[in-house]
Every structure is written in structure tokens, then in C-alpha cells.
Amino acid sequence: MFINDVDFIVPRFSSGEMKLKKDELTRLITNNSVKIVYNGEISIFELFIIIKYYKSIGTQVTLYLGYLPYQRMDKHNDIEVCTQELVAQIINSLGIDQVFVCEPHCSLQPINNAKPICLVYKLLDIMKKDLSLDCSETLIFPDKGSVNRYSNIKSKNTVYFEKVRSLDTGL
Q1: What is the b/e burial string over 26-41, where b = at least 16 CB atoms within 10 angstroms of the residue's CB?
Q2: What is the pTM of this model?
Q3: Residue 155 contacts residue 138 (beta carbons within 8 Å)
């Protein structure tokens, strides 16, 4: 995890729980704000504790999520709990000033102040320029969700893979 571009290694007690020190966290504040880049090295719960501390002392928090945990648990059915909605509620309760999610696989609408970071468009521009790629032919997507997410990319043909998951196992 990075806090204001500093690789913050979370100190731990022998039990494995975080051993956070106020002076170490406050030293990372710049102009009353922190930019936290979450890379999954700590649990989402531990991240929430750190954010809660910063917000409790009046610090503005901008959060960058390389991956939004539980974003794929967004199905409404009789078997599964829609944990994506619960995570969104927790994030909102923290009062984070800005949240950026890299290539989200769900709607960010339930999360306050959230915006997507879509690398596909940047990659596509590079491919067009450096490889003289013509996207008017056939685009292949890994699933129907990605077809919908990138529907504004025009091509003559679109191919996507259809995956069917078991509600019992998720596989």
C-alpha cells in the first residue's frame, strides 16, 4: 500500500494485527490530505481502519483501488448475499473524499465520489498508434459484461465468451 507515494509497510503485533502509530501515519499527510493506493497487501478491513483514522483527524482521503474487493458479488438471487452493496455502504460510511477504481467490473454508482479508471481506452490508443491496429474488424471480449462496458468501441464484429457459473460453488 502506498500513502502519498510512500510504500507504507504495516507494522504488526506478534498476533498479526496491525500496530499503527499516530506519528507514522500523520507524518505521511501532505497539505491535510493523503492519497492511498491500495494493492491488496493488507485486508480491506485493515485499509478501512487506516482510512477511518485519517478521517477522524480531519484528513482528506483519496483512495485508488487497483481492484475493488467483492465487486463481483453483485447478484441478486435467493442464494447469495450481495456483498458488493455492503462494501459500498461501508466505503460510504468512511466519508472518503474521492475513490478511483481501476477497471471496475460493476457499477460504481452505489459508492459516493467514485470514478472509474479505464486503462482499456489508453491501451487501445497505444495499439492504434504503435501497431497501426484497425479496430473496425473483430474485437474479442472475455465476457458479456465487458461487451457492455466497452460498447462505445466500434467494430464490424464482436465476439465474447459466455461463462456459466454454478450458484452453489461460484465456479
Answers
A1: eebbeeeebbbbbeee
A2: 0.76
A3: yes
Question: How many other CB atoms are found less than 10 A from the CB of residue 74?
Answer: 17
CB-CB contact of 162 with 142 (8 Å): no
Q: What are phi and psi of 75, to 5 degrees?
A: -90, 140
Give just the sign of the alpha carbon dihedral 23, 28, 31, 34: negative
Residue 139, strand partner residues: 158
Q: Which alpha helices (DSSP H) does the chain contain, by range?
A: 22-26, 44-56, 83-93, 119-131, 144-149
For residue 18, how far is the Cα from the chain centroid? 22
pLDDT, one tens digit for every residue, the chain (171 residues): 999 999 999 999 999 999 999 999 999 999 999 999 999 999 999 999 999 999 999 999 999 998 887 766 566 677 777 788 889 999 999 999 999 998 887 778 889 999 988 877 777 777 777 766 666 667 777 777 777 777 777 777 778 888 777 767 766
> Do residues 64 and 36 touch, judged by C-beta distance below 8 A?
yes
Instruction: Report d(CA 36, CA 139) in Å as an integer.
Output: 35
